Amino acid sequence: MSTAQGASTDRRIAVFPGSFDPITVGHVSIVMRSLPLFDRVVVAMGENTTKRYMFPLEQRLEWLRKTFSNNPKVETLSYQGLTADLCAELGAQYIVRGLRNSTDHGNERSIALMNHALRGVETIFLPALPEHAHISSTIVRELMANKADVSAFVPAAVRVP
Q1: Is 113 in contact with 101 (CB distance < 8 Å)?
Q2: Is 27 a catalytic residue?
Q3: Is 66 a known active-site residue?
C-alpha cells in the first residue's frame, strides 16, 4: 500500500497531501468523506527537509498505514517535491483538501490555483465537520507536549506514551 502504482487516466485518483504530524481525526474524516468521489485516494505525506517535525517520518507513515489499513481504496506514501508533480506521476487529476475556516480557504485557494497552473490538477475542498473544525496537528502537538490526553483528536493508531 505504500508504493505508488501506475495509473490509468480513466480512473478517478485523488491525492490528499499533508505532513500529518500527527494525523488527526479531522484528516481521517476528510479522507473517508472523499472516498465516494474517487476510485483511489492517495494519502501523501510530504517531506520538507527545512521543516522541523515532532515525529519522525517513519512513525508518521506507520500511523497513516495503520489508520487506513482496512480500506483498499486508500494508499499511503511519502514524497518530496511539488504535490502537482506527484499528481502527474500518479496520474491523479485531483487534490483533496479540508477547510476548517476562512483562513484555510484563503491559503488553500492560492495553492490550488498554482497546482492548476502547473499541472492542470483540480482541487476539491471539503469543509471540516463542525466537530472537527477546531482540531489541527499544531494544536494536537501542543497538547502532546504538555502531556494532555489527545485520544479524542487522533485516530487509534496514534498512541504516544
Answers
A1: no
A2: yes
A3: no
Asked whether 123 and 30 are in contact (CB, 8 A), the reply is: no
Residues comprising the chain, all counted: 161
State the Cα–Cα distance between residues 83 and 1, nearest whole angstrom.
Answer: 19
The model's pTM is 0.91
Catalytic option among 65, 73, 100, 119: 100
> Which residue is catalytic, options 51, 52, 102, 147?
51
Domains of the chain: 13-145 (3.40.50.620)
- Among 34, 60, 132, 137, the one annotated catalytic: 137
**Known catalytic residue: 29?**
no
For 117-146, the pLDDT digits (tens) are 999 999 999 999 999 999 999 999 999 999
Contact between 133 and 100 under an 8 Å Cβ cutoff? The reply is yes
Known catalytic membership, residue 137: yes
